[in-house]
Design goal:
Length: about 100
């Protein structure tokens, strides 16, 4: 990882820490790891989190973060990448559509 990536990650972490201190919930809920509580967050709560953590991030930085997460994140129950845990019939439909020239 480059120094820009590390600096960006620190900047994001600082932003989240500041938001938690200022507002508490919903940030504490997410950081608690309590999936049942996280599932109960409202759309407004989720938008607050997105706004706080993505502010100041360029499109390229967001794309790099997303790609890294998709490549490294694992489901805690199945210990597999999230991209492996998809609905097979939907994957088949998407593959068929791509073969007919659709972009998915």
């Amino acid at each position: 990882m480059g120094s820009n990536y590390i600096a960006g990650a620190r900047h994001q972490q600082d932003q989240v820490t500041i938001c938690i201190r200022r507002t508490g919930t919903p940030f504490k809920t997410v950081l608690s790891g309590d999936r049942a509580a996280i599932a109960k967050l409202t759309t407004d709560d989720l938008l607050k989190i997105l706004g706080a953590t993505l502010t100041g991030m360029s499109v390229d930085e967001f794309e790099a973060e997303t790609k890294n997460w998709l490549e490294t994140a694992r489901d805690p129950r199945w210990k597999r990448p999230y991209t492996d845990l998809t609905y097979v019939p939907m994957n088949e439909v998407l593959t068929f559509m791509r073969s007919k020239g659709y972009k998915t």
